[in-house]
# Entry
Amino acid sequence: MITSTIQPPPSDGDMVGLHARGPLLTAFGLAIGWLVASGVFSLIAAIQLHSAAFLADCEYLTHGRVRALAETSFVYGWAGGAGISAVVLILSRLGGNPLRAANWFGAGSVFWNLGIAAGLVGIATGDMTSFSLLQLPRYVQPLMVFASAAMGIAGLLAWSGRRRDGTFASHWYGVAGLVLLPWALTAAQVSLLWFPMRGVLQAVAAAWYTEAVIFLWLTPLSLACACYLAAKLVGRALPSYEAAPLAFWMLIVVGTWSAGRHLVGGPVPAWIPTMAVFSFSMLLYHFAVVGLNLRPVFGLSGSVGSALKFGVGSYLLYGAVAFLACFRGIALRTQFTHFASATEQLFLYGSVSMILFAALYFLVPQLLGRGWSSPALMSGHLAGATIGVVLSVVALGWAGISQGAVMLEPKTGFGEIASGVRPYLLVNTGAQLVLLASNLLLAVNFLRSLCSCCQGSGVSTALSEGSAS
Amino acid sequence: MSSNMDSNPGRGVAGASDDSLQAEHEKLLGKQPDEKGHYRLLPLNLLFLLSAFIMFSGTYLGRFSGYFHPKVYNEYGLPPKPGADSAAAAVDPIALGKNVYAQVCAACHQPNGAGLPPAFPPLAGSEWVSGSEDRLIRILLHGLQGPIKVNGVDYVGVMPAVGPGSGYNLNPEKVAAALTYIRKEWAGIDTPVSAAKVAEIRGKDGTRQPVTVAELEKLP
# Structure
């Protein structure tokens, strides 16, 4: 391990600078809040799938709206908020300098969360758009662009002002995730909400944005965390690292061309779904190299190691499942069934969330200057999240496959199909309950750690513990 | 792993500082000062893997591209031949006419063509329907005003124009189709009314006031 550098490496504790702790911890806390909120919405939506009358009289919580509320608070509130904050922190640590433009980050984070709050009220009162993953009402969309750009500026400055000349994989993925979201969000809202394109193009643009959220935003953010955590926790260089740059560029350049996989069988020219298979089989190279690079995490133990292991494993599994579901013969059976929800859950919860959980558990102690207040709550949360994700993905996936098979038989009535998947949906409701409960443990643990930090002499402990490590 | 490590995982492995982590990875990417910017080659097995993916995806794209044609929706489909559109667009005038009749005419003349005395004369068995094509075209294009005697009964009403530029704005093809349907259904005439003739009369007369029976009777 090379330690001979020009300047002695600064100790881990003072690198971020005390001025950045407030905004970062606030951003993490708000993201956890959105995670809990989205758990409540997901639970309501899951119950409504098998008991349609549940809250059906409440205009604000009808199924379409509550699903949009769950998705938006999860993707933008939790995954986006925590992902951007974690990446900014990691970029600052890799840069080796105190975080610059922390006030930009803080202001951006405040407006980001205000935008989500206003957007959720808008969705509940009927102002949502009709595009998946872009459901925030039109009037908060520009705010989201500026807020995410403002948060990203801190990360970009940490990257451009880094001490070392070279870059690490977390740099590439992190900067890509920070830069590409404002661009993709602008492109999507201009072409879908402000000056809507007409006809089939609208569906193509909406599918492109879905792919951009997955492959240009959430994947880079979570892989930036995963590469950093893997290198830190394993303590060795990532294996097959020389292949990593091409895998990164493959993701960025080819990733969104797979948008056509959402349009299989739709009224689009045949080459668009074919292009999805083309680009997804190129993406397999990306998935293969990520698997090779991150394979040491599968030897890790401990709470953070297990969460990271689960997250990376889910990401690889998602790649395989989504690749197969691109093909027309398979999409015929899986599209528009619960299988699609299962793959989405596998990516958003199994992969992105679990990696972000690991990142939170790893990074927050560095901000607090002390460990989490309760290791028991931590392992309880991760165990609950693992069980919940596995249960809901398996139940929904199974429901989708059986549903897809009977939906192709014209003689089977709709009621029969709906009652056939009911047991799986009940399991899914149970899984959502477990997820909500385990995420409450995370929230409690976070608040307790925050309070115990504030009560003690937080500042001095932070510095002394930081330099001790 | 110790419980202390578990509650504060942020310390990571001793020795894996952010700086050494980067130094070690930079070494792997071949950016060392003595290497003069040479690129490391991809390992052979990954190169084979990448080639396999490129070959598979290229073959798939070539096979199922639908010739990248905007009107091919099926991956096995062939692009349409030029000129094939006009042949496919030929529409049965009776079907079109029935459609137009149901939408426009049937409100007054009734779906069975019996009309509604005393304002709306019948079409079924009417000597006007079985009579001059020129007169019928003008009634539809310009509308009809004033009394009209059908089957010996006097009707007084106003028939609005339905042709191009009127409130209904039917194009010559639809006017011709409606007349073809009416004549076939209630007068047994198989000869279709041609859209070209409707367009010609419309071009000659232009937009004008509704015709009267007296005017029509001057026509052949």
